[in-house]
Amino acid sequence: MKYRLLPPVLAAIAGFSALTGAAWAQSASADAAFSTKQRAAIVQIMRQALQDDPTILTEAIRSLRVKAQQQQEDKSMAGVRAHRDELQQAPDFAVRGNPHGKITVVEFFDPRCSYCRHMMPVVDAFLARHPDVRLVEKLVPVLGEGSVIDTRAIFAASAQGKYDVMLRALMDDTTKPTMDRVSEVAKANGLDMTRFAADMSAPQTVALITTNLDQARAVNLDGTPTFIFGTAAMAPGALEPDQMDEFLERARKA
Question: How far apart are the two ends of the chain, measured CA to CA in Å?
C-alpha cells in the first residue's frame, strides 16, 4: 500500500514546457535568441498544438511518470547498496528461512496492511521452495496508531520468545487494535502479562521500531509490503509467486 503520492499532473504541466522547449532552449542565451513577439508566437503555437492534438500532453505525462519512477528506483537502489549491511541485519527472532542462506531477502511490512497480510502465505511458500534464502523481516508501523500498537505488542512478545506467535495472531486479527485488544491476544497466547505490559514501552521496543523506520527512510520506502532481493532489486507491493522467483533469480546472478 502506498502512503506517499507524487503530484504527476502538476509535474507534467511543468515538464511539458521543458520538453517542448528543449529544441530551442539548448544554449545559455536562449532568452536572447528570441524577441518578446517571437516568444509569444511560440507559446501560441504550443497552445494550438495542444488543442489540435491533446495526446501531446498525455504523452508528456506518461514520459514524466516513467522518468519519475526510474529516478525513484535509482534513489532507492542507491540506498539499498549504501546500507546493505544494516538492512540485512536483524535480531534472530526476525530472521526466517535459512539463517545461513546464500541470498538475503528483506521484507518491510506493516502488521495492519491488508496486502502484507495477503503476502504471508505467499512468503511461507517462497521460503519452502528456496531453502537457501534468508529472510529478514522489518516491521514498520506506517499506517497509523493501530499499526504502532500492534508493532509494539509484537516486539514486546519477542522478549518472551513469542515474536512469530504474536505477529501471526495480530496479522490474522480483524478487530480494531487497542491496548486492551493486544493484551487479550497476548494473554490468549500464554504471555506473562506483567512483563508484556512493561515491554510494550521498554527502550528496546522503541529502539527496534526506530531502527526499522530509519532504514525504511534510507531506502526511500514508498509503501508496504516492499521486498529487497540482495542488492539486485527492490520490489514494492504484493507479488505473485513467479515474480518473487524471478527477482530471486536476479539476485542470484548479481
Answer: 28
How remote is the C-alpha of 187 from its chain's centroid?
32
Q: pLDDT confidence of 1, banded at 50, 70, 90?
A: low
How far is the C-alpha of 170 from the C-alpha of 155, rounded, in Å? 12
Secondary structure in 3-state letters for 59-108: HHHHHHHHHHHHHHHHHHHHHHHHCHHHHCCCCHHHEEECCCCCEEEEEE
106 three-class SS: strand
Rounded to the nearest integer, the mean pLDDT of the chain is 86
Write out the H or E segment, with its range, that includes residue 138.
Answer: strand 133-139
Q: Whose CA is closest to 180, among 163, 160, 197?
A: 197
Look at the alpha carbons of 141, 142, 144, 147 in this order and tell me if their dihedral is positive or negative: negative
pLDDT of residue 70: 59
Identify the band that residue 69 occupies on the pLDDT scale cut at 50, 70 and 90: low
Asked if 226 and 107 touch (Cβ cutoff 8 Å), the reply is yes
Distance CA 217, CA 57 (A): 33
Amino acid 243: pLDDT: 97
Nearest Cα to Cα of residue 57 among 5, 6, 8, 23: 8
Which pLDDT value is given to residue 75?
66
